[in-house]
């Protein structure tokens, strides 16, 4: 045995003896076994295809509302902080927002395409993570029904989240109120994540098997959203228009990738916890019982 292999096996033996490290490594390795990176790319792609048309729809609706009315609203005051929207809101801006019927129609069509794509990709990802055999996965019609249910649920959740943000902005900026707002948003995001996990996961998996991972995903999403919003407001507030647009697009892609990665890792946590798939080995042979169980699940999934 060469020195490098001996060192790796020493680390392997250490992580297998400790429950926390064994569990964390098992989640990490299960993510790789399920080709999680490819699932993340698919989710991020359809998420981008959904969010950009949604921004087009929002911009068009704001244009129909009217630049003058928008300038006096809480939403207008918030959008002024961003380089793209901020330069088109106000009394004397050179290029004010305008509504467009073709833009609205194209945006809605793109939004539906991207949102249904996200739902289909997420259902596939959850089935892969739980190693559900292909022969018992839901067909096209049930998948579309779940996709539409997720679309409606997330639409209501986005509307409620926007309402909470508007109330928080209008009510004040005291420390106590900020803490209360974060707590309410955290509870809301956890509840929405639990519902989303239930809609996306095949019905063979029970509610209780989804709660822990969904709670972790909800907390991680809240932290990511809070930090990301503060970072965007700080970095892009005074950026030039061109750099602000590039930064916004790149930041959006990175944000979608992080959200997809955190969501899938949270789902993997549920699987590892439910099936007790730890400890896993870094170097084989020998295979641990958990390694053999994962390989058997993958083989059954591909039947």
Blueprint (SSEs and pairs):
Elements: H1 3-17, H2 19-33, H3 36-65, H4 67-71, H5 74-79, H6 83-86, H7 101-129, H8 140-171, H9 175-200, H10 208-236, H11 241-275, H12 289-301
Describe this structure in words.
Helices cover 79% and strands 0% of the residues. With 303 residues, the chain is mainly α.
Main features:
303 residues, mainly alpha, 12 helices, 79% helix
Summarize the structure.
The chain is mainly α and 303 residues long. The chain is built from twelve helices and no strands. The mean pLDDT is 81.
β-sheet strand percentage: under 5%
The separation of the N and C termini measures 38 Å
Q: Structural class of the helix and strand makeup?
A: mainly alpha
Low-confidence stretches: none
Mean pLDDT: 81
Q: Mind summarizing the main beta sheet?
A: none
Which descriptor suits the 3D outline? globular
Give the number of DSSP strands.
Answer: 0
């Amino acid at each position: 045995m060469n020195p490098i292999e001996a060192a790796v096996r020493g680390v392997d033996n250490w992580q297998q003896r400790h429950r926390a490290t064994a569990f964390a490594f098992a989640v990490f390795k299960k993510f790789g076994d399920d080709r999680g990176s490819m699932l993340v790319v698919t989710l991020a792609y359809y998420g981008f295809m959904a969010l950009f048309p949604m921004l087009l729809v929002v911009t068009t609706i704001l244009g129909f509302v009217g630049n003058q009315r928008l300038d006096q609203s809480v939403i207008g005051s918030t959008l002024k902080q961003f380089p793209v929207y901020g330069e088109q809101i106000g009394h004397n801006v050179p290029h004010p927002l305008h509504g467009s019927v073709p833009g609205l129609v194209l945006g809605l069509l793109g939004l539906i395409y991207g949102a249904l794509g996200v739902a289909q990709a997420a259902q596939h990802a959850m089935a892969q993570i739980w190693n559900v055999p292909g022969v018992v996965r839901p067909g096209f019609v049930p998948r579309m029904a779940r996709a539409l249910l997720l679309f409606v649920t997330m639409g209501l959740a986005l509307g409620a989240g926007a309402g909470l943000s508007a109330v928080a902005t209008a009510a004040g900026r005291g420390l106590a109120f900020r803490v209360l707002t974060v707590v309410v948003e955290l509870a809301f995001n956890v509840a929405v994540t639990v519902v989303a996990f239930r809609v996306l996961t095949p019905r063979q998996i029970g509610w209780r098997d989804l709660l822990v991972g969904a709670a972790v995903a909800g907390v991680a999403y809240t932290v990511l959203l809070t930090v990301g919003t503060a970072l965007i407001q700080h970095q892009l507030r005074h950026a030039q228009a061109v750099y602000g647009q590039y930064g916004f697009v790149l930041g959006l892609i990175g944000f979608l990738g992080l959200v997809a990665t955190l969501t899938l890792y949270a789902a993997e946590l549920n699987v590892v916890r439910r099936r007790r798939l730890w400890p896993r080995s870094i170097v084989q042979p020998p295979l641990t019982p958990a390694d053999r169980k994962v390989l058997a699940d993958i083989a059954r999934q591909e039947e």
